Amino acid sequence: VQLQASGGGLVQAGGSLRVSCAASGRTFMSYTMGWFRQAPGKEREFVAAISWRGSSTYYADSVKGRFTISRDNAKNTVYLQMSSLKPEDTAVYYCAADRSTVMRTSTNAYDYWGQGTQVTVSS
Prior knowledge:
By secondary structure, the chain is mainly β. It is built from no helices and 11 strands. The protein has strands at residues 3-6, 9-12, 17-23, 32-38, 45-50, 57-59, 67-72, 77-82, 91-98, 112-113, 117-122. The strands form 2 sheets. Strands 2, 4, 5, 6, 9, 10 and 11 form a 7-stranded mixed β-sheet that branches. Strands 1-3-8-7 form a 4-stranded antiparallel β-sheet, with no helix packed on it.
């Protein structure tokens, strides 16, 4: 599967932004999908994951209550709605696909990665 992230940009602190990830291939709905982010000088970190059917989600503590992950299997797309953004949310955001049905937080667990989209939150 190929993944293409989009929707990043510059937003003020407290604002909202939605990033999207479009997937190619007919097997998209069989994958657990995740969002990760990487800030300059830091390791890539888990943000959120969603089960193949969209019935289960899991979030990093740092974004819980502010970010919402969702997916539309008919459109082969997964979304990350980000609200109450903080400067520390600034990073390149990556979507990833995991063939496992278990939602996992390790970068090593994911099989396919998109190219990333930059999100910058100004103070």
